[in-house]
Amino acid sequence: MSQLETGTSVVRIDHRISLLRCFVWSLRKELWEHRSIYWVPLVVAAFVVVGLLVAAFDVPASLRGRRVWGDLTTRAPIHLPYSVSSMILMATMILVGGFYCVETLYAERRDRSIVFWKSLPVSDAVAVVAKFFVPMVVLPALTFLIALCAHMFMLGASATTISMSAMEGISVSQLWAQLPLTEMLVALLYFIVATTLWYAPVFAWLMFISVWAKRGAFVWAVVPPIAVIALERIAFKASFFSDLITSRLNGAAAASFSARAAQKFPNGSTEPFFYIETVPDPAKLFSSGEFWIGLVVAAALLIATIRMRRLRDPI
Amino acid sequence: MHCIEARGLTKKFGNTLALNNVDLTVAPGRIVGLIGPNGAGKTTLLKAILGLTSFDGELTVLGRDPRTERDVLMRDVCFIADVSVLPTWLRVSQAIDYVEGVHPRFNRATIDAFLAKTSIKRTARIGELSKGMVTQLHLALVMSIEAKLMVLDEPTLGLDVIYRKQFYESLLNDYHDKARTILITTHQIDEIQHVLTDVMFVDGGRVVFSYEADEFESRFFELSAMPSAVNAARALRPIYERTSFGRSVFLFRDVEAETLVALGEIRTPSVEDVFLAVVGNQGYNIQGAQP
Fold this sequence. Notes:
The complex is a heterodimer of chains A (about 325) and B (about 290). Chain A has about 325 residues and is mostly helical. Chain A has helices spanning about 5, 20-35, 35-55, 60-110, 115-120, 125-165, 170-180, 180-210, 215-235, 240-250, 250-255, 280-285, 290-310; strands at about 255-265, 275-280. Chain A has one domain. A two-stranded antiparallel sheet of chain A has the order 1-2. In chain A, helix 8 (about 180-210) crosses helix 9 (about 215-235). Chain B is built from eleven helices and 13 strands. In chain B, a hairpin with a 2-residue loop joins strand 8 (about 200-205) and strand 9. In chain B, helix 4 (about 110-115) packs antiparallel against helix 5 (about 130-145). The longest helix of chain B has 18 residues, at about 160-180. At the A-B interface, helix 1, helix 2 and helix 5 of A face helix 2, strand 5, helix 3 and helix 6 of B.
C-alpha cells in the first residue's frame, strides 16, 4: 500500500472557516449551554401576561374616568401596565445578563470543557466576544420582542374588555387615541439600547471576574466594590466611588431621558393643561462623559478577559 | 520543516520543575510515544505544545508559536489532552455540529462511521453517557479531524480492550492514509509499541532517553545468563539486572549481540522492560531488582 495510491483517494477538505462563522457557532453554543438566557425572560413574561390580563379589566373604568378626572389622571393608568411590564422585563434582562456574565467563563473552567473548546480553532477573542454578545445583543433583542408581544397582548385584551364592557360612552377608538403606540415602542427600544450600553462596563467587569476567579466568582464580583465603598465612607467620609457605582447601576434612565414641560389642550378646551413628560434624549446620552468612559472601561475589561482566558486552566 | 521543535523548554510550578530544559525534535510523519511515570512532565509537555500553558524556552509547532497562535495552530492540530472535558450539557449531535461548524478539516462521514460502531445515541446529552462512551465520542470527534498533528494524552483510559484494539487499528489505518504526525502518551505501553515509530522516555521533566522503533531490536537485548557467565555479563555494564527462576537476567543497551550470545540465551525485551530499566531504576524499588 503506497502513499501515492491512497493519497489520491483522500478528499482534502481545506476550506477556511470565516471569523463570522466561528462567531455564530460560538454564540449558538452559549445558547445551548445557558438555557436560562431565554427561559427566565419567557417565564417572567408569562407572569407579566397574567398581570396584564387582570389589568385589562380595569381599562374600561380608566377610560371612563377620563371624563371625570381630566387628561393627566387618566393617562397614567392607561399607560401604567405598558411601562411597568417593560420595566420588569428590562430588570430581568439586566439580572439574567449579569448572572450569565459572572457564570460563563467560570463554568467552562469548572466543568473542564475549556480544554475541549481550546482544542478547536476558535480564538479567545471570538469566544469572549461571543459571550459578551449575549448580554449586549441577544438579551436586549429578546427583551424587546417579548415586550412588544406583551404590549400587543395588552392592547388586544384591553380592546376586548372595552367592547365587552357595559359602561356607556367608551369605545376602542378612545383607547387608540390615548396610546401613542409608535412613540412608546421607539422609546422602549431606545431605553433598552441605552440601558444595555450603560451597563456594558458592569457586564464586562462580571466577565473579567468570571475568567479570573478561582472560586466564588460571584463573591469576588461584589465584595471588592463594597469594600472600596466602606473604606471611602469610613476613612475619608467621601462618596465618590459609591456615587459612581450608584449612577452606573441606577442612572441609565437619567442619562438617556430628559424631562420637559409640556402643555395640552384637552377635549378642545382653550385652557392649556401643563404637565411634565419624559422623552428620549440621545443627544444627552451621547454627550455624557460617563457614558463614553463606561464604554472605554468595558472595552479594557474585555481585552483583559480575552488575554486572561488564553492561559486559563480548568479549576 | 520539523513538526515540533523545542529548545530549552522549562516550566515551573512553584518549586517543582515540571519541564527541565527539554530539547525535542519531532519530524513530520512520525508516531511518537511519550512514556514516563506519573508526574514525569508528559502532560505539561503536551500542554505546552498545544498552547494550553505558558513556559520558558523556544517552541515551534508546525512553524507556529503555540503561546500566541493557538487558534490558527488548531486548524492543523487535533488533540485529547485530558479525559472528561466534554461538557455534560452538550448533546452528541450538538457536539458534532459545533466541531463541523468551526473546524475546516472536520469530516462528518468519518464520525458517522465511528459512531456506528458504538451505542451512542445522538440525541443524548453527554452527561447521560457512560464514561467509556464519552471517551469514545471524544476520540471519534478527534479522529474525524484531518489534522497534520494529532496529540493524544492517555486516549484510551477507561475503554475496554475491544474498543482499544479497534482504536489503535483505525489510528494506524488513518496514519497510513493521511501521513500525519502523532504524539501519544499512555500507560499501556505494550498496546502501542507496535504502533510507534519513535519512543521517548520522560522522567523528572526531561526526555531521558529516546530511540527509533526500528532500531529497538538491534539496540536492546535481554540476556538470561548462564550461572558461570554472570560476572562476565555484569562486566558488560547491563542497564538492569533481575533474577527470574533462579537465573540472572540482564538488560543491555548498545552491546553487540555476538558478545552476549556467548553468555547465555538472548531475546528482545519488551518496551515495558526497557522503560522500567531506564526510568524505573532510578527512583523506584522494583521487585526482583538486585541492589
